[in-house]
């Protein structure tokens, strides 16, 4: 047996890999950066891929399971992950595979009937949540936001939520796939809410609404993918973060424009209350009869009209935007 690797595969090799995954009920994701394929002679018998620090698309041919082939592929993926500087590793698989990957040093983070997320740190998510926990005799709530960038709409959501609870944990997405860098977004939220004494601003890390928590790559029925991704993400929130931090309410803004966010809100209403977390939606702030949105702010920036964002964002955000964009000094990511 021998292993072929691609970073990523192209052409005929990629086509062959996609067919193999299809036959295993999986689908190839375009964001994959590295793949390892195990061959027995000319026959592809096992494969796995790496995207960032996530192992995914791991498959063994049905008639070759039980031969420890997945371990050979995972060894190759782990070597590549270490070479790329990744120490904290995640793995997506189906729930029935938990024992196999546990033997390889991965631990369950959360699961649904369709998806299992594992990591190579025992109690990694739970330990992170415990570092954020704070004693409170009253109602502890949370909000998860992107703030791309932080607007008066976000300020209104957080201020209103904070007035309805005793302690509010605000989690800011740390996935660096937004227009503004994560470090800047988190700083702007902290600056824009520093007067709210019962608000704590945290990074989500890889555990909420991130590339790690949306395992759509192996779902057979893509029409269900968004819902299933919500389920896994919300399982992590309720069973890990809410439990360890005493969170009993999750606040969210109403979403009139983005279909994905609206679907996520519906998923929260369905899944969180049975897990002990009530969901409260707060009506979006409007200015001039229109919802304040980060997308509008970004559109104005792209059009070179930064000065028109002043009435849509807090002073700290506006200062940041002027410094970064007014003189053509830079662009978001």
A few lines on this structure:
This protein is of the alpha/beta class. The chain has ten helices and 14 strands.
Question: What would you note in describing this structure?
Answer:
The protein has 333 residues and is an alpha/beta fold. The chain has 2 domains: 2-122, Gcn5-related N-acetyltransferase (GNAT) (Aminopeptidase, 3-Layer(aba) Sandwich), CATH 3.40.630.30; 133-325, Rossmann fold (3-Layer(aba) Sandwich), CATH 3.40.50.620. It contains 10 helices and 14 strands. The strands form 3 sheets. The protein has a 7-stranded mixed sheet with strand order 1-2-3-4-5-7-6, with helices on both faces. A 5-stranded parallel sheet has the order 10-9-8-11-12, with helices on both faces. It has a two-stranded antiparallel ribbon with strand order 13-14. Helix 8 links the parallel strand 11 (249-253) and strand 12. Helix 4 (124-132) packs across helix 7 and helix 7 (225-245) packs across helix 8 (259-271). The radius of gyration is 22 Å and the shape is globular. The chain starts with a strand and ends in an 8-residue tail after the last helix.
